[in-house]
Amino acid sequence: MKRNISNEEIATMLRHRAGDRDDQALGEVLRLVGTTPQEKPTWAARRPPIRALILVTLLAIAGIGGAVLLGFRPKPPPDATLLPASLSYSDGCGVMRLDASDLSGPLRPVDAMVPPLNGGCSWPIAYDLSWSGDGRFLAYSSSFFCGGCGSPRAQQAVRHSGMWVVDTDTGHRFQFRPGCETPVCIYESVVISPDGGSLAFVYASRYWVLDIAANRTVELAEAPRVPVAAAIVWSPDSARLALVQNDTTLSVISADGTAKTTVFDAGVDRLRDPAWSPDGQRIIFVVTGSSGGIRTIRYDGSGLSRIGPVGGLAAYPTWSPDGQSVAFLERAPDGGIWVMSSDGSHARELYPHRAGASLSAPVWAPGGGYLAFARRDGLYLISLDGTSRRLAPQLQFSGGFPWNPRTPAWQPLSASGGAE
Amino acid sequence: MSHVAAAGESLESLVIRARKGDRDAFASVVERRFGAVFRTATAMLGNDADARDVVQDVFLKAWQHLPGLRDAARFDAWLNQMLRNRCRDSLRQRRRAREIPLGIEDPPAPDLIGGVAGTSDLNTAFERLDAAQRQILVMHHLHSLPLGDLARQLGIPVGTAKWRLFMARRALVRALEDAQ
């Protein structure tokens, strides 16, 4: 049978094959390079991983011991006062939601907010879950690849691709595919504004903002060719966005795209993972490389400071809801999830590395007493005293392919929003 | 002895310093190229466990053999050639592993498309391509590299890149027709 394949079909198939950004794999390479000589291969150089990993382990043990001796003392856990919340995540069967109003007890499944099509646990796959500040609107993106796209089942999934906003008050769901002229279009780094009125996203290597009510898009700036997680983030008042350009520059731009300010240029190093402080005054981000680390800066470009003991291998720093603490991931073979005060003091590894776990970015629960994160074998919750437990297991599809629960996102439950 | 890189330092300059043994410069090179290389490897191989091994090997080999790279401007082409060769080895190992008569059925390979969509003809067709065909399709269609950049990244003339891309697409179409 004669068959034509569009560029978009190939791109979509390849995107699904391409793995998630793997920061711990990057950290592993950097560590191994740091311990591998640059000479002609000897028997040791031909077999670097085993020797290097032993050395890395010894160095890590020595490093942790040294850090303790130098005075990094664990901070007592703050009062884990909780706000009502639910925890949503994508697990390949749609978007699931757990009642997390009492995190000390077992979490109760609430619903599948976006149920699987045709009753099967295959699609839609939801990415980039985010909630509006009042917990009413959920946004996510969905893309789908099909070989022939001929079956009704495949056609249904193709029609589902795009950006979605779910109104949990009314149960209505809205699909957006701005600029899309092919069956499947790929929208990345999708995030809803705290006021629930707009979506920021990356499409066709550009940053855009979509006014949801008016269904109108505004182009903001050029985006990295290989999109990174959290490349664009809303300020808490929804008035402006912080975004990464050229992998090196942090910019702040008004939501209407009219006023853009370059806040920081990392020069030769890469800049990543910006996040706003809860009061909207500062942005935290990571500069990679040997002289890198976690930095914070005011959104007008003043008041730059470097915080924390982990250098350029830090990732996904995020302020606690009260702005007093920062959690982040260490991208290293032996790196885990860290918590420290917002000035960088009292740093401690809250969740140590587990071999092959490949941890995701930690996300604070609304009350600040817990963090949620995904690892290869499930979705986890950890309290600030270091107690962790698995909330949702890894799924196995019929073909044996394991699918991790991913992109945990907390839904704050206020007067207008709520899980039944 | 290493020194902090100057702002805006080019990749070529970093490679030259790394070639002399500057680990910090090479770390900056890895940071710049890791995302694209990892994504290329996972798309070529179809699972991230193999890709992690391949990418780790590629960057370690790059570090070890960098003093032998004469022209720093050809670093990308050199790196992509190593990636292609290492992916080819990985695919061969995978095929050999499946030929061993264990008397039991091999567990299904972790196949994202097959697992998720269930209708993965195009993915199955892609699995039939060789490493070079996979690489050029990934670089052009996943990373959206125009032909000029594609040629530079692969270290070949633009006309050759265009021809190889055409042939890779044709191979994909034929594999898809066979699959159906």
Please explain how this structure is put together.
The complex is a heterodimer of chains A (about 425) and B (about 180). Chain A is built from five helices and 30 strands. In chain A, a hairpin with a 5-residue loop joins strand 16 and strand 17. Chain A has a four-stranded antiparallel β-sheet with strand order 3-2-1-30, with no helix packed on it. Chain A has a four-stranded antiparallel β-sheet with strand order 4-5-6-7, with no helix packed on it. Chain A is about 15% helix and about 40% strand. Chain A is mainly beta and about 425 residues long. Helix content of chain B is about 70%, strand content about 0%. In chain B, helix 2 runs antiparallel to helix 3, helix 3 crosses helix 4 and helix 7 packs across helix 9. The radius of gyration of chain B is 18 Å and the shape is globular. The N terminus of chain B is likely disordered. Classes of the chains: A mainly beta (about 425), B mainly alpha (about 180). The interface between A and B is large, with 72 and 71 residues.
Strand order of the largest sheet of chain A: 3-2-1-30
Radius of gyration of chain B: 18 Å
Distance between the termini of chain A: 51 Å
Report low-confidence residues of chain A grouped into runs of 5 or more: 40-50, 59-83, 117-121, 397-401, 415-420
Percentage of residues assigned to helices of chain A: 10-25%
Number of strands of chain A: 30
Q: Which stretches of chain B of 5+ consecutive residues score pLDDT under 50?
A: 1-7, 96-119
Structural class of chain B: mainly alpha
- What is the number of helices of chain A? 5
Q: Report the average pLDDT across residues of chain A.
A: 76
Number of helices of chain B: 9
Which class do the helix and strand fractions of chain A yield? mainly beta
SSE order of chain B, one letter for each helix or strand: HHHHHHHHH
* Strand portion of chain B: under 5%
Features of the shown structure:
heterodimer, A: 420 residues, 4-stranded antiparallel sheet, 5 helices, 30 strands, B: 180 residues, globular
